[in-house]
């Protein structure tokens, strides 16, 4: 009998790549500053609620999460990570800003480098018996992990350094509740 997705997640070995919660407050200024949230789009009240729910669901489902939670340097991704996982250290990783840049006007060479680096990062296995959570951004359609809804999660199975990764499934935030009933 094939194991359910939830059973596999409880064993660990996956990367949960999630887009931040709904961000409708403000706009990203042309020369935004990572240290100044007023120059960025920030989480709405719904986005904050989504983040809290996301963390609650992963805890309820007893999915083991490794520390630290990795977040893009934007205020909306950091706040999402902190609200979802209040008891786990959040590590800000500037690499994930590159995913945001994929949606902008960049050269084919820069896009290729970002996607090559992404493949290398997503090939790395998390600590034994745990899953790694990354809170960052959606991708343009057909690129990288593709379009991701607010707090949607792409479940990635790393194959080890130099061996790539497999996309197992993409879940919308509402799908997390369905996992509980799949057991």
Brief summary:
This is Histidine phosphatase family protein. The chain is built from six helices and eight strands.
Notes on the protein architecture:
The protein has 183 residues and is α/β, with parallel strands linked by helices. It has one domain (5-181): Rossmann fold, CATH 3.40.50. 33% of the residues lie in helices and 19% in strands. The protein has six helices and eight strands; from the N terminus they run αβββαβαβααβββα. The strands form two sheets. Strands 5-4-6-1-7-8 form a six-stranded mixed β-sheet. The protein has a two-stranded antiparallel ribbon with strand order 2-3. It is globular. The two termini are 13 Å apart. This is Histidine phosphatase family protein.
Strand order of the largest sheet: 5-4-6-1-7-8
The main sheet comes to: 6 strands, mixed
Q: What fraction strand? A: 15-25%
Q: What is the C-level CATH assignment?
A: Alpha Beta
- Helix/strand class: alpha/beta
Radius of gyration: 16 Å
Could you say what the CATH topology is called?
A: Rossmann fold
> So, the CATH homologous superfamily?
Phosphoglycerate mutase-like
Integer count of domains: 1
Q: Judging from the principal axes of the Cα atoms, what is the shape? A: globular
What do the pLDDT scores average to? 94
Spans of at least 5 consecutive residues whose pLDDT stays below 50 are: none
Number of separate helices = 6
Helix content: 25-40%
**Order of secondary-structure elements:** HEEEHEHEHHEEEH
Question: Strands, helices and their partners?
Answer:
Layout lengths: L4 H7 L3 E5 L3 E3 L16 E2 L1 H16 L8 E3 L3 H10 L5 E3 L4 H5 L6 H15 L9 E5 L16 E6 L6 E7 L3 H7 L2
Parallel strand pairs: 1-6, 4-5, 4-6
Antiparallel strand pairs: 1-7, 2-3, 7-8
